[in-house]
Amino acid sequence: MKKISLLLVLVLLFVSLMSGCSQPAAPTTAAPTTAAPTTAAPTTAPPAPAKDKLVIAMGAAPSELDGNGKNDSPSLQVRLQMYETLVALDESMNIIPAIAESWEYKDESTLVFKIREGVKFHDGTELKASDVAFSLIRGDQMGYVGNNLKVIDFEKSGATGDYEYTMVLKFPFAPVLSALTVGAAAMVSEAYVGDHDLDFLARNPNGTGPYMLKEWFEGDRIELVKFDDYWEETKGVKELVFRFIPEAANRAIEIEVGGVDIAYEISPNDTLRLQGDPKVQVAVGNNLSTVYIGFNYTKENLQDKRVRQAVSWALDLDPIVEAVYFGLGSQGKNLIAPSVWGYSENVPQYGYDPEKAKQLLADAGYPNGMTTKIWTSNNQQRMDIAEIMQNQLAAVGITAEVEVIEWGNFLVALQNKELDIYLLGISASTGDGDALYNQFHSTSPFSGNTGYYQNAELDALLEQSRLETDPVERAKVLEKVQQFVMEELPWIPVWHGVNSTGLGLDVEGFVNSPSGTHILKNVHFK
Question: What is the mean pLDDT of each run of 10 residues along the chain (526 residues)?
């Protein structure tokens, strides 16, 4: 028994030794384990996806998105990313092709436009010359293009082919192409407009532009997305987000901290501050705008030009402009900006003379002064001007209450002739002195002739300025117009403006348009 046990032990020991000697080498590829991999993980994170959403801060929400709707600046800033006009302006205010790829004069009153083939509306339908004809008639009838299209004889004009539009003018008109660039004369779909009412069209745009509406968050933002069937190759991002930030200081903060990529209408004081910030780009350039003090001509006490002149003599504009605009831009000397074609400095000028103001008030029947209101939207610079005005007018016996209302309500009150003295800005968006016609002709709608001013003598001069085709002679007529309005003073010019736009350091391709309406189809990130 002991021998058997001993033998068994020896056998087991032998097997164990043999097993140790014959154990195979470890495999060349290790079995999966939870241990660290043989190849080290990258020491840096993978690159972030390219930015493809551009966020823009603007001062107010659009009033509507109908292509032929109201032409207030906030509406146009958004709409002109989605709609296009027959011809357009480049950054130097030169006429360039848009929906019309070319045009020619058949005679001095007849133009033939060749319409681009293959241009699609956002609903997928193709634009034809019949849509062009419809759009121009509708733009004129809607009334927000001012008098820009009144020169067209619509009965004789129309589509003369699927891709040809013939325009016949009532008379030779030198700035006709400039007139066609006005935003409210955008191209719309005849079929689409015919299928919907105005309320629907105001919120559901259908243009031919590089972007289309994604969603409108009332009171907060509007989101646009790139239109894949746009007729032209562009460098723009996939999405645009327009945020509504009324306070200029908050827009400046947002561009500083990276909350937005572009901030429109940076205030002068913030402009000076941001120009010293290495994290921000600031684009500043003279524009076509004039901030002005308007008078509602339907108010009896404001119909006498001596009252309007008295207000002007009561105001010391130099310190107002310096305090509010920090030396940017220039004090208003005329009712169109110096960068507008036809501008003249040979016009009546006013200064600060309180005694003269009191005398004019007395001559107008107000020896003990008068009571009125100064109205403004919630634009910080204009609110500041209104407060300074209030104090300066009080010194000559004009008691003025300041009323500040939201932009949309301000426009409604303006249209309803509810305002008295008011602060507003206007841009000669076509770059031509013909803007004076829209601003002061008695037939112009409230969007141009905001004070409803009427004067038959001025009407005649304005009409003459449209009939004259010789540039030298036309400039002389426009100078007479400017001399007349600066004597009558339906508005008091305060400031000729600049566009000041804040940009993130990685934003590229932005053009600071003198018109104040910036087209973003080629804006992208570096």
Answer: 36 36 37 40 60 96 95 93 96 92 96 98 98 98 89 97 98 92 96 98 98 96 98 98 96 97 94 94 93 97 97 94 90 93 95 97 97 95 96 97 94 95 91 93 89 97 91 96 98 95 97 91 97
Whole-model pTM: value is 0.77
CA distance 218 to 215: 9
Q: C-alpha angle 332/337/342, rounded to 5°?
A: 130
Is the CB of residue 85 less than 8 Å from the CB of residue 186?
yes
Phi then psi for residue 433, to 5 deg, are -65, -10
3-state secondary structure at position 33: coil
Note whether 511 and 91 are within 8 A (CB): yes
Burial 178-209 (b: 16+ CB within 10 A, else e): bbbbbbbbbbbbbebbeeeeeeebbeebbbbb
- The alpha-helical segments, DSSP class H, found in 204-316 are 248-257, 268-274, 305-314
| End-to-end Cα spacing for the chain | 92
Give every CB contact of residue 492 below 8 A, 6+ residues apart in sequence.
292, 293, 308, 311, 312, 315, 332, 350
3-state DSSP: the chain helix, strand, coil percent, rounded to 5? 30, 25, 45
CA nearest neighbour of 507 among 341, 239, 262, 313:
262
Residue 116 class from Cβ within 10 Å (0-12 exposed, 13-18 middle, 19+ buried)? Answer: middle
Q: Cα torsion for 285, 241, 63, 266, to the nearest 10°?
A: -30
Closest-CA residue to 165 (of 199, 119, 204): 119
Give dist(CA 377, CA 384) in Å, integer. 11
What does the DSSP assignment read for 402-471?
Answer: EEEE-HHHHHHHHHTT--SEEEEEEE-TTSBTTHHHHHH-TTS-TTTSTT----HHHHHHHHHHHH--SH
CB atoms near residue 434 (< 10 Å): 30
DSSP letter for 523, please.
-
Of the candidates 360, 352, 369, the one whose C-alpha atom is nearest the C-alpha of residue 313 is 352
DSSP per-residue codes, 187-207: ---HHHHHHS-HHHHHHS---
Structure token pair of residue 62: 């659009």
Q: Which residues pair with 114 in a beta bridge?
A: 102, 164
Q: Quick one: which H or E segment has residue 56? A: strand 53-58
CA distance 496 to 517: 16
Token pair listed for 412: 């409604």
